[in-house]
From TrEMBL, chain A:
InterPro entries: Beta-lactam/transpept, Beta-lactam/transpept-like, PBPA_dimer, PCN-bd_Tpept. This is Cell elongation-specific peptidoglycan D,D-transpeptidase. GO terms for biological process: cell wall organization. One of its GO terms (molecular function) is penicillin binding. Residues 160-492 form the Penicillin-binding protein transpeptidase domain. It comes from the Bacteria. Residues 242-261 are annotated as: Disordered. It comes from Micromonospora chaiyaphumensis. Residues 242-257 have a biased composition (Polar residues). Gene3D superfamilies: DD-peptidase/beta-lactamase superfamily, Penicillin-binding protein 2a (Domain 2). One of its GO terms (cellular component) is plasma membrane. SUPFAM superfamilies: beta-lactamase/transpeptidase-like (SSF56601). Residues 52-134 form the Penicillin binding protein A dimerisation domain.
UniProtKB/TrEMBL annotation, chain B:
Residues 1-21, 468-496 are annotated as: Disordered. This is Cell elongation-specific peptidoglycan biosynthesis regulator RodA. It comes from Micromonospora chaiyaphumensis. The chain crosses the membrane at residues 31-48, 60-81, 88-107, 127-145, 157-175, 195-215, 236-253, 259-276, 283-301, 364-386, 406-427, 439-458. It comes from the Bacteria. GO terms for biological process: cell division; regulation of cell shape.
Length: 500, 496
């Protein structure tokens, strides 16, 4: 029996040798892969060892970390709840992070290259310095106003967006997407709860997670007429040039007549461009567009920022940020490249395949207010070190492009001011300020209510632009654009009040 | 040992010259090794506290000292009742047991809220319970040493033990799921808040029966054979009991949904059969039967499902755990990540995150420990296991009677196989099955059964190393019983 016993001894040695070899495979060869695996909760535990920095708006923390007794040492919380959700995003334990939390993750977590001095210091002192702080450009009052006014809109719209920017710099003053969501449950350390909440939001048919202000496009309706007007002004038309109008216009190749929003609007055969803008004359702009041709309108729209698909809103530099969807003009020509007056006519009043983000609308208004210079929009004002004294990155406003000359911008500004003074945008007026704007009503479908739009700007007594805004109320129906104008005025007034 | 069957196994190789070389009891060596083991356990506890609490409390040594006292008691019992027992067994097992208790206390600390950690009672939680179980298990082992003064007396109860073993194996399979099922495996008897794993004890009882049965039958099994393709195969009628055990292990596989236990029983049986008969054909038959059965269960699981589905699932997880990392593969994936995080040197005792690993106190304790002591530490633990197994096999080599050889050899191999099954399972070498890691995992059944196993090995090694001419030696005892007759009797073999 001893020979087999010895062989059994050898077999056990071989079995243990296999275990040893396999442990070598796992703990030596695969160790790095397993240690840094996405499924490895320790990666996150390590991330939660250091206190994450604040995200602040006007001196108030809107995202902050509190110490807990759990295995993840800090709990992220968002005191503003749903109000700042689409800007801040969220930093969940088990899901992907979004928004500024994602953009500035390295700085907030304290792992960015900029903060290496702190980490080296920590190595010697044994302390754990927290992450850096991110200060946003948002105006607290403008953001609150935008959030409340949008959600309490008087036309019962359930979806929409509002964005306000400083025309001189591109700094975003307010950014709200409706409906919003509370990011706090998503940051719960109970990952089941967080996942359940995420799934609930993800399945909601109103898509609260979507950032409508930046990443969703809708037909812009009459707000697009500013682009057509800019193209016209550059092609020999002035404010006082008489253009053909009328109560109805049927493009040469199509039986569908284009009408005005009300019979009282430009029934005359001829109106001036100024009157056409003030009253939002569809027949006038349809014929103007057909006269100008697709190329000129598309080129002008492109110069205003349409078709740009790599814009993002974050830091003032090119670092990346919250993704912005490209606004599109669509094809205004017949298949094969021939002219298609019907498509051109409908596109000229912001219908057919024209699609615009609220950000693009605000940029158009801001460009007009800023003398034709379009500034790059940004959200991060400053990166502030963990010690709250060292400033790492202060925003440097940069011009994005120059869509129109100063003179054309001046003409557009005059006409838009007239819209608020005596046209469709009267509700946007602000006491003591010169407000200009353009309303828009866009058909959303054969049997659904129209979208309401307003793009506008405010100038102070010296003619200096202080705020530009775009409000969009999805499927708001009748009165939507007037309500959008009212909300736009309130947001700009709040931004002005805080800036004063 | 029969010259007719195996001429090579001469008396010289059987006895290992016991009277000359092994006359010293080496009890003092055992005591000093035991002290060394307890010092290691205390150092482990201190490191854990330094890492988890940032300070070493004045009480850190208490669990190690309590364990030390318990083991010291067993050492004294061995001095008195089995003075020639192998001196390496007790310290090696004590070290594993101590590390197990230390890690479980470390796990309690990790689960407790930070502000309660420093005041966490020493005898509370899983760690404290494991300490109590250790005391119980060691008392049981000492009792076995006291009752069983000669391992051959065990053979008198062989059939009783065999029957008890089968009943113990079958109870969880027969019981309704709510009394026997935990995490999908029906291995338990649950009464109130209390649960025992009868299979842990069954393996001891069954092995004692196998050893007895095979000693009786070994001549027939090894000699009556038919030659096919150059390999001697046994006669059909002699295959009967083997097939019965094979069926039982497959039933365990199917109805208790546990591949590990099934592999354990079958491997145990085949290896004792091989040791008894010295026939490679038995190993071949056994391996073919087991892998054939497992493959059949896999195929049936994928097509028929039903009771085979669980096995099919486990095989799927084993083949690609990362396919469903948050679902079915979660445990195994987390086990692998935990081991990988440990790397070569580990995070240091107390430096890991055991709470992230499910079942870290039982099935996955080896991975949990591995995160903190790394590849080097785990290799050391494997060496300690290997040492225990090889010392057990050595006792089997040295003991003079066939029953003792089979008993010690089978038990030692079973222990090694169990370590292989669970450690291989959590490290994705073989499909994962719920087995306890001997002496480390939390749980009284496993601890008691394995300490009983060690007591038997101690008893056999005592018999093996006891000087033959000592007068009171087991060989000289008049009341030897059947095994001794077998041992001494000439064997008559008639080839058909």
């Amino acid at each position: 029996m001893n020979a087999p016993l010895r062989r059994v001894g050898v077999v056990v040695m071989i079995l243990f040798g296999l275990l040893f070899a396999n442990l070598n495979w796992i703990q030596a060869y695969k160790a790095d892969e397993y240690r840094n695996s996405d499924y490895n909760g320790r990666v996150q535990v390590a991330e939660y060892e250091r206190k994450r920095g604040n995200i602040e708006v006007g001196g108030t923390a809107v995202a902050l970390s509190k110490e807990t007794s759990g295995k993840l040492k800090f709990q992220r919380s968002y005191p503003g709840g749903a109000m700042y959700a689409h800007v801040l995003g969220y930093k969940p334990v088990n899901l992907g992070d979004t928004g500024i939390e994602r953009l500035e993750n390295d700085f907030l977590a304290g792992t960015s290259d900029q903060l290496i001095a702190n980490r080296i210091k920590d190595m010697f002192t044994g302390d754990q310095t927290g992450g850096g702080n991110v200060l946003l450009t948002l105006s607290k009052r403008a953001q609150e106003t935008a959030y409340k006014q949008l959600n309490d809109n008087q036309v019962g719209a359930r979806r929409g967006a509002a964005i306000a920017i400083d025309p001189r710099t591109g700094a975003v003053q307010a950014l709200v997407s409706m409906p919003s969501f509370d990011p706090n449950p998503l940051a719960s350390h109970d990952t089941n709860e967080a996942t359940a909440e995420y799934n609930k939001l993800d399945k909601d048919k109103d898509r609260p997670l979507a950032n409508r202000a930046l990443a969703e496009t809708l037909p812009p309706g009459s707000t697009f007429k500013i682009v057509v007007a800019a193209a016209a002004l550059e092609n020999g038309v002035t404010q006082q040039t008489e253009i053909p109008a009328g109560s109805s216009y049927t493009p040469p190749t199509s039986g569908q007549p284009i009408r005005n929003a009300a019979p009282s609007i430009c029934p005359e055969a001829q109106v001036t461009l100024r009157e056409a803008v003030t009253d939002s004359c569809n027949t006038g702009f349809a014929q103007l567009g057909v006269r100008l041709g697709a190329d000129k309108i598309k080129e002008k729209a492109r110069q205003f920022g349409f078709e740009q698909d790599d814009l993002s809103v974050g830091e003032s530099g090119e670092k990346g940020g919250l993704p912005v969807a490209a606004s599109r003009t669509g094809e205004m020509t017949a298949p094969g490249g021939g002219t298609d007056p019907a498509a051109l006519a409908q596109s000229s009043i912001g219908q057919r395949d024209v699609r615009m983000t609220p950000l693009q609308g605000a940029l158009i208004a801001a460009t007009v207010a800023n003398g034709g210079s379009q500034m790059r929009p940004y959200l991060v004002k400053q990166l502030l070190g963990p010690d709250r004294t060292t400033v790492y990155d202060a925003a440097k406003p940069r011009e994005l492009r120059q869509p129109v000359s100063g003179q054309v911008a001046g003409d557009l500004r005059d006409m838009m001011v007239n819209v608020v003074k005596e046209g469709t945008g009267r509700k946007a007026a602000i006491e003591g300020y010169t407000v200009g704007g353009k309303t828009g009503t866009a058909q959303s479908g054969p049997n659904t209510p129209d979208h309401g739009w307003f793009i506008g700007f405010a100038l102070d007594k010296n003619g200096t632009p202080v705020s530009a805004v775009c409000v969009e109320l999805e499927q708001a129906g009748s009165g939507g654009s007037a309500e959008a104008a009212r909300i736009g005025g309130r947001i700009m007034a709040a931004a002005i009040a805080e800036g004063r | 040992m029969t010259a007719a069957a195996a001429p090579a196994a001469s008396p010289a190789s059987t006895g290992e010259q016991p009277g000359v070389r092994l006359a010293r009891s080496r009890r003092n060596a055992e005591l000093s090794l035991l002290l060394l083991a307890m010092v290691l356990v205390a150092a482990y506890a201190a490191t854990v506290e330094a890492n988890v609490l940032d300070t070493v409390t004045p009480d850190f040594w208490i669990p190690a000292a309590a364990l030390g006292l318990v083991f010291l008691g067993l050492h004294l019992v061995i001095r008195w009742l089995a003075p020639f027992a192998d001196p390496a067994l007790l310290p090696a097992v004590a070290l594993l047991n101590g590390i197990g208790v230390g890690f479980l206390r470390r796990y309690d600390l990790a689960k407790a809220a930070p502000e309660q950690r420093e005041s966490l009672a020493i005898f509370a939680g899983t760690g404290g319970r494991q300490l109590a179980w250790t005391l119980g298990a060691v008392i049981l082992a000492a009792a076995l040493l006291a009752i069983m003064r000669d391992h051959r007396s065990l053979s008198r109860y062989a059939y009783t033990l065999g029957l008890a073993g089968i009943v113990l194996v079958m109870i969880p399979a027969v019981l309704p799921g709510r009394f026997s099922e935990i995490n999908g495996a029906k291995l338990w008897i649950r009464l109130g808040g209390f649960s025992i794993q009868p299979g842990e004890f069954a393996k001891l009882a069954l092995l004692a029966f196998f050893a007895y049965y095979l000693v009786r039958k070994r001549e027939v099994l090894s000699l009556a054979s038919r030659r096919v393709l150059g390999v001697d195969f046994p006669r059909g009628r002699d295959l009967g009991p083997v097939l019965v055990v094979w069926l039982i292990s497959l039933l365990v596989l199917v109805f208790e949904k546990d591949l590990g236990t099934s592999l354990l029983y079958f491997g145990m049986f085949v290896v004792t059969l091989y040791i008894a008969t010295e026939r490679v054909s038995w190993l071949l038959i056994g391996l073919i039967l087991f892998f054939g059965g497992a493959y059949l269960a896999y195929v049936l699981g994928s097509t028929v499902g039903g009771p085979f589905a669980n096995f099919y699932d486990r095989a799927q997880i084993w083949l690609d755990p990362f396919a469903e990392p948050y679902d079915r593969g979660y445990q195994l994936v987390q086990g692998l990540l935990t081991l990988g995080t440990g790397g070569l040197f580990g995070a240091g005792p107390g430096g890991g995150q055991p709470t992230l690993l499910p079942e870290v106190q039982t099935d996955f304790i080896f991975a949990g420990i591995g995160e903190e002591i790394g590849l080097f530490g785990l290799s050391a633990l494997l060496v300690v296991y290997l040492l225990i197994v090889e010392r057990g096999l050595r006792a089997a080599l040295a003991v003079r009677d066939s029953f003792g050889k089979l008993l010690a050899g089978g038990l030692a191999f079973t222990l090694g196989l169990q370590v292989f099954v669970i450690v291989g399972g959590i490290s994705k070498l073989i499909p994962l099955t719920g087995q306890t890691t001997p002496f480390l995992s939390a749980g009284g059944s496993s601890l008691m059964a394995n300490w009983l196993l060690i007591a038997v090995l101690l008893r056999v090694s005592d018999g093996a190393r006891r000087p033959v001419t000592g007068g009171g030696g087991p060989a000289a005892r008049p009341s030897g019983g059947p095994p001794e007759q077998l041992h001494g009797a000439p064997t008559e073999v008639i080839r058909p």
